Amino acid sequence: MTMVGQRTTVCVVVCWFLYLVCVDTEKVVPYVYTYKVTPSFRDTLYRCRLNVLPLWVPNVFSCATHCQRVGGCTLFCLKGQVCTVYSAQITTFWPGLSDIHQFDKCFSTWHDPHDLSHFVTDIAASSVFTSIDGLRSPSLAIDGYYCYVSSQCFTSKIGTSHWLRLDLGAPRSVTSIKVQTRRDEYITPTFSNVEVRVGNASDHTKNPVFDRLLGFAHRGQLVIFQGTSVATGQFIQFASRTIYPDVFTICSLQIIGY
Q1: Topology classification of domain 27-108
Q2: CATH class of residue range 117-257
Q3: Could you read off the pLDDT of 74-127 as tens digits, one per residue?
Q4: Which helix (H) or strand (E) holds 51?
Q5: 214-239: per-residue pLDDT in tens?
Q6: Is the Cα torsion angle 191, 196, 200, 202 positive or negative in sign?
Q7: Which residue ranges make up each domain of the chain?
Q8: Contact 141, 33 (CB under 8 A)
Q9: Whole-model pTM?
């Protein structure tokens, strides 16, 4: 009995030690890939808060496990002994802000290590909407942050013909492109009849069509453009034509490739 008890004690100690090593190195999180992101965000982050959990022992493993159990969680943050989970789409490209929401550490499941958007050297649009809360510039589509409100999204002026163009700096191989549409209370579709072209011609209209969205995306929909084969090019264009005048919006953009 004594021998069994000693073995049990040793096993518990070793397992607990290994558990702490995993937590402290922040390398292992169960079942999902997570990426450490800058733990400071805009004050609108509360709009996509899903849940708050007090922890007896604050550690990354417990918070990550909680994120897995909450539907729609793509970001989890620790501050003291509190774990907060969000549906915010944050990448490692987000530089952070000295704003209200500050944490000890945060991790994202939304970031994709194959995202090429950080290679973008120039991004331009057919027009840019200006509101009382600022310019809805094209760079907002690739800044690595989207939570809920439209002020975090690229938005064009009202019209029937729109485009957004990106320069990747050099020819890249593109396998898919993910576009997050706005998820706020605005019910009119702002991402519809979109044609995506990828190629090396500086005249974007001469590049091959990568994929199309026929019709409109529903509010908050994640649209994935998938070509029939890998496309190689330096330039990407999104072009939208609609019957009725409205704005054209992209809240988060990921260009997946190599």
Answers
A1: Hepatocyte Growth Factor (3.50.4)
A2: mainly beta
A3: 999 999 999 999 999 999 999 998 656 789 999 999 999 999 999 999 999 999
A4: strand 49-54
A5: 999 999 999 999 999 999 999 999 99
A6: negative
A7: 27-108, 117-257
A8: no
A9: 0.84
